[in-house]
Design a protein that fits this description.
With 207 residues, this protein is an alpha/beta fold. It has helices spanning 10-16, 34-43, 54-62, 99-109, 123-130, 155-164, 185-188, and strands spanning 24-28, 46-51, 67-69, 84-90, 110-118, 167-176, 179-180, 191-198. It is 29% helix and 24% strand.
Length: 207
C-alpha cells in the first residue's frame, strides 16, 4: 500500500498520488471545489465536480471549477460509461442512501474509483461509544441530531463489502492527523482512502 505525498492537505495529497498527470476526473460531492482545483494545479487534471448545494456550486465556480448541480442519489445517468479516468467520492459515501448503486455507477463512469470515508472503528470513536455518547470528531463533526451521515462503517466493514461485491482494492491509505497508519489501521486510523475497480470478470454490482 502506498504512503501519501507530503503537502499542506495530506488528504488531498493522498488522492493526488493516485491521479495520473493530465487525467480526466469527476469529483462527486465536490463541496467548494478545492480538491479539483488542487488536482488541476498539481496533476494538470481536467473534469467536473458534482454537488447538490447552491452554496457549494457557487463556491466551486469561484474556485474556477466546472461544476454540475445534481443529486447523487439520482445516479450518474448523465455521464457516459468510461467518460473519466477517475471518479472520486471523498467523505460522502456515509451520507448516501443507495451505496451499492452509487459505487456501481462510479465504476461504470470511471476507469477507477477513489473513495474516502471516516473510520467508525477508530479508537477515539469507540471510546465515545463506550462512554455512552454518539461520537464527534474532526472526521465526524456533527451531533446526532443534525448529522447527514446515515451509514457509519469501519475499514473492516468496507473491505468485507468489497469482497462480497466483486470490487478490487488496488490501493489503500489510512491516516490519522495527516499521518499514515500501518499498524492496526481499523483501530488507529481515522480516515481511510481506497482506490478501486471491478474485479476481473466480475458483473457490475446489483442495486
Amino acid at each position: 500500500m502506498s504512503a501519501p505525498l507530503t503537502g499542506s492537505r495530506p488528504d488531498f495529497a493522498t488522492i493526488a498520488q493516485w491521479v495520473a498527470e493530465g487525467a480526466r476526473v469527476l469529483d462527486l460531492g465536490c463541496g467548494d471545489g478545492t480538491l479539483l482545483r488542487f488536482l488541476r494545479d498539481t496533476r494538470n487534471a481536467t473534469g467536473y465536480g458534482v454537488d447538490i448545494s447552491d452554496e457549494n456550486v457557487l463556491a466551486s465556480v469561484g474556485n474556477g471549477v466546472n461544476v454540475i448541480q445534481s443529486d447523487l442519489e439520482a445516479g450518474l445517468s448523465g455521464f457516459e460509461s468510461g467518460s473519466f479516468d477517475y471518479v472520486i467520492l471523498s467523505q460522502t459515501l456515509q451520507a448516501m442512501k443507495h451505496t451499492e448503486r452509487l459505487l456501481n455507477e462510479i465504476l461504470r463512469v470511471g476507469r477507477e474509483g477513489i473513495v474516502t470515508f471516516p473510520n467508525f472503528g477508530y479508537w477515539r470513536v469507540r471510546a465515545q461509544l463506550v462512554a455512552g455518547r454518539m461520537p464527534v470528531s474532526r472526521e465526524l463533526p456533527y451531533q446526532w441530531y443534525d448529522t447527514p451521515n446515515i451509514h457509519l462503517f469501519t475499514i473492516r466493514d468496507f473491505e468485507t463489502f468489497c469482497r462480497g461485491h466483486a470490487l478490487r482494492i488496488l490501493d489503500r491509505v489510512v491516516l490519522t492527523d495527516g499521518q499514515p497508519v500501518s499498524v492496526a489501521p481499523n483501530l488507529f486510523g481515522s480516515l481511510a482512502f481506497y482506490r478501486l475497480d471491478h474485479a476481473p470478470g466480475a458483473n457490475p454490482i446489483q442495486p
